[in-house]
Design brief:
The structure is a homodimer. Chain A has two domains: about 5-115, Tetrapyrrole methylase, N-terminal domain (Cobalt-precorrin-4 Transmethylase, domain 1, 3-Layer(aba) Sandwich), CATH 3.40.1010.10; about 120-245, Methyltransferase, Cobalt-precorrin-4 Transmethylase, Domain 2. In chain A, about 25% of the residues lie in helices and about 25% in strands. Chain A has helices at about 20-30, 40, 60-70, 90-100, 115-125, 145-155, 175-185, and strands at about 5-10, 35, 50-55, 75-80, 110, 125, 135, 160-165, 190-195, 205-210, 225, 235, 240-245. The radius of gyration of chain A is 20 Å and the shape is elongated. Chain A starts with 5 loop residues before the first strand and ends in a 10-residue tail after the last strand. At the A-B interface, helix 1, helix 4, strand 5, helix 5 and strand 6 of A face helix 1, helix 4, strand 5, helix 5 and strand 6 of B.
């Protein structure tokens, strides 16, 4: 055991340095090796002697296995994710790779949380996640679309606020339209909707609208979508984007 | 407008300084006034000349109105929350207070996201939130218990991972038992369950178990509860707490 290294699964946050935790920054300094999707590696400060192992976006499990191999060789490996590694990011791939490799079960692994895209979006929008909410990835790379539909229905049945990750797919661009068509049948047209793109980065763009008026063609892979509950409402502000409030108090609750 | 101050809604993260974002730390330095629940104010560094307005935990809206009054008087007011202010914390109260006060609509308000308790818990547990999940507050102070039940049922119907905030209530200690009894009828007894208390603080305690074996009497107000989906599984690790993996791949998804 004494010759083994360790794995640090690091959340970089949504983009700007001021949203990256001190724990994550210290991990990036301490690591001998960085493993991750190339655009996330590009966000990490350059350090002499530190090795970088960039990869494409579709190979999470290969990336995790590389991290295990490096750690077993005594390296301190930071596996970097945008946002929070625990939310549709690298923590699941690393744990899955460890599960499939008995000899990796004793490796020291530390997951370091980060601010996720939905939280950055919510911050700009006031308080859209101020009450119970669901978080759903629209990607059907690894799950059947029928399961996505089942979860969208359940989220509407429970009158949750809904945060959608991975709303756009080059392979299946129709999915976000399918999702909005389904939700449009299940929820009121006046439900507030926000498309929050690249929040905290130079190309940030936020559109606040309603379910009836929403045009899902504007989403891309950097967009986080929030759809309100029946209690969510818009608050207009002079000269600024409106807020979305999902209030703490529900109908029938004590005052 | 030029004489007005501003409101910064600041997320302190789950506890330790290394999980507080640089943006939040800078806001605590810049603020002339700190407003918040007293235990959260106690986490903020002391600064000469900075005024502190501590309060009890049940008066979020009063706290938000105080922040508005101070900002209108030209002060730079940091409203501090544990975790992420957007997740069952002060952002909703501040936006609600602004909604109810036309003269506050033009006040500059910046919400600063933070790492929330579920993310700290998930980091310790490997990857329990690695797939679609729901986030539900069990508090029925402001919503009827029937709505909590409806959402628990919907979350089970959608086979979401479930994160429960505010699982304990001095006023109604039976609620967590009611919730577990309901979920026990709707989900398999082998479903992984975690009780993650005060993660990142000196009194951190994590219990990993199953729905059939879970003893909800151990929860308190500092506990975050995670209940897996049908796909979630435990991964034993020698000498360490087991991981919970909610895998990226669902049955029926492409390999």
């Amino acid at each position: 055991m004494s010759a083994t290294g360790e794995i640090l699964v690091v959340g970089l946050g949504p983009g700007p340095d001021h949203w990256r935790t001190p724990e994550a920054s210290a991990a990036l300094e301490r690591a001998t090796d960085l493993v991750g999707y190339a655009p996330y590696l590009a966000r990490c400060p350059e350090r002499p002697g530190q090795r970088r192992h960039g990869s494409d976006n579709r190979v999470e499990l290969d990336r995790a296995r590389l991290a295990i191999a490096l750690a077993r060789a005594g390296r301190v490996v930071a596996v970097v994710s945008g946002g929070d590694p625990g939310v549709f990011a690298m923590a699941a791939a690393v744990v899955e790779a460890i599960e499939g490799d008995e000899s990796a079960h004793a490796l020291p692994v530390t997951v370091m949380p980060g601010v996720s895209a939905m939280q950055a979006a919510a911050a700009r929008l006031g308080a859209p996640l101020g009450h119970d909410f669901c978080v759903i990835s629209l990607s059907d790379n690894l799950k059947p679309w029928s399961l996505v539909e089942k979860r969208l229905r359940a989220a509407a049945d429970g009158d949750f606020v809904i945060a959608l990750y991975n709303p756009a797919s080059k392979a299946r661009p129709s999915r976000i339209f399918d999702a909005f068509a389904l939700l449009g049948r299940l929820k009121a047209g006046s439900t507030p909707v926000a498309f929050a793109r690249a929040v905290g980065r130079p190309d940030e763009k936020i559109v606040v609208t309603t379910l009836a008026a929403a045009d899902p063609s504007i989403v891309d892979m950097a967009t986080l979508v929030i759809i309100g509950s029946s209690a969510s409402r818009l608050i207009e502000r002079p000269g600024q984007a409106p807020f979305i409030l999902s209030p703490r108090q529900a109908a029938g609750g004590a005052p």
